[in-house]
């Protein structure tokens, strides 16, 4: 689709990430993608967040051409609509940031050796939460 919303004035294409038009966290895996530079990606999500909270967002694209604005608004509304569509879905994943100190990180790494089928720290922590829940809540 687009290589970037706004072309840089260099001879090279801007570097960017290939992003799902419908975010994966809103069920958009394996759908169409667009490549955006970091700046455009940030603005896109700021616009979507402003749509969610009902705040004005036009100032976020000041200095952009009408075509650039149109593309950013189009993408932002796709993000906004996707998250609205799954807002009450009990299976929707939520990102949780976890800060571990060095000792806790070492504990997780030791446990990963005990559970080699769990390929990441995230998988191990998810397993631990589910195990504790089953043990204490759903007996």
Give the topology:
Blueprint: E1 17-20, E2 33-36, H1 38-53, H2 66-85, H3 102-114, H4 121-136
Antiparallel strand pairs: 1-2
Helix pairs in contact: 1-2
Give a short overview.
With 139 residues, the chain is mostly helical. Helices cover 47% and strands 6% of the residues.
Can you put this structure into words, describing what you see?
By secondary structure, the protein is mostly helical. The chain folds into two domains: 17-85, no CATH class; 102-136, no CATH class. Helices cover 47% and strands 6% of the residues. The protein has a two-stranded antiparallel ribbon. The longest helix has 20 residues, at 66-85. 14% of the residues are buried. The model is unreliable at 7-14 (pLDDT under 50).
**CA distance, first residue to last residue:** 51 Å
Helix content: 40-55%
Write down the overall mean pLDDT.
82
Shape descriptor reads elongated
How many domains?
2
What keywords describe this structure?
139 residues, 4 helices, elongated
């Amino acid at each position: 689709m687009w290589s970037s919303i706004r072309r840089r004035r260099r001879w090279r294409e801007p570097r960017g990430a290939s992003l799902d038009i419908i975010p994966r966290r809103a069920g958009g895996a394996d759908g169409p993608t667009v490549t955006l530079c970091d700046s455009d990606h940030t603005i896109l999500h700021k616009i979507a967040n402003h749509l969610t909270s009902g705040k004005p967002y036009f100032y976020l694209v000041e200095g952009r051409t009408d075509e650039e604005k149109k593309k950013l608004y189009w993408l932002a509304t796709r993000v906004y609509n996707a998250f609205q569509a799954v807002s009450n879905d009990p299976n929707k994943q939520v990102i949780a940031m976890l800060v571990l100190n060095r000792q806790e990180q070492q504990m997780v790494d030791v446990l990963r050796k005990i559970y080699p089928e769990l390929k990441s720290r995230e998988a191990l922590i998810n397993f631990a939460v589910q195990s504790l829940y089953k043990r204490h809540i759903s007996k």
